[in-house]
Amino acid sequence: MPAAGKSVQILESFTRRVAESGYDGTNFGDIAEELGISKGTIVHHYGTKDRLLAVLHESYMQRRLAEARRILECLSAPADQLAGLLYAFVRYQVHDRHATVAFQRESVRLAGQEMHAEGDRLRDEYLELVRGVMRDGAASGVFRETDVPMQSLLLFGSAQWAWTWFDPEGEKSVDEIGSAFVDLVLGSLLTRRTALARLSDPDGKVAETVRTCLAEAAAAS
């Protein structure tokens, strides 16, 4: 195993194990055995298990922010932009799945600790990005006036628990669920619902733009 790749491989193994077994069910011994290294090598790269979780947190949010910004660049209108972000929320259940499940299942542990301050800052930045789109839509008259902070937390709360029930091999595809999420949210926000069918179309421009943006991000990583 090349020395330069050890830290990445450690993080990938840790992420997968947290997704499958949770933070408490993950230990350095199992990671070391899987990778054929010593526990001391893991400590050398990351120090503690909590530091590994902090790195997972930060790297996850950095990727999501970069993707969200790219989606907003590719979609100009607030309704399209919010629909794109909503599709992405759901699509993360198959895109970067291990990191998404690990992040979502340990979200309570991540919040408010000093070691996770940078991850928290990135999460706040992502949240404000979404709120900015919602405010722009309201200011232009496309969205009805709402309590944006509360509405945005409801959106994130809905997506946050998808890991507990979404099955990638289940009856409903991720595109179908994404379409339903867009229909639910934008159906309540749009002042005129004439664009709703277009925005929630899983084969339409918005959904395809999201798939393209996420695929490009994955290819570049």
UniProtKB/TrEMBL annotation:
InterPro entries: Homeodomain-like_sf, HTH-type_TetR-like_transc_reg, HTH_TetR, KstR2_TetR_C, Tet_transcr_reg_TetR-rel_C_sf
Any GO molecular function: transcription cis-regulatory region binding
Pfam families noted in UniProt: TetR_C_24, TetR_N
Coiled-coil regions listed: none
SUPFAM superfamilies xrefs: Homeodomain-like, Tetracyclin repressor-like, C-terminal domain
DNA-binding region in chain numbering: 27-46
Keyword Cytoplasm: no
Keyword DNA-binding (UniProt): yes
Lineage: superkingdom: Bacteria
Gene3D superfamilies found in the cross-reference section: Homeodomain-like, Tetracycline Repressor, domain 2
Keyword terms of this UniProt record: DNA-binding, Transcription, Transcription regulation
Domain HTH tetR-type: 4-64
Name assigned to this protein: TetR family transcriptional regulator
Organism: Streptomyces boluensis
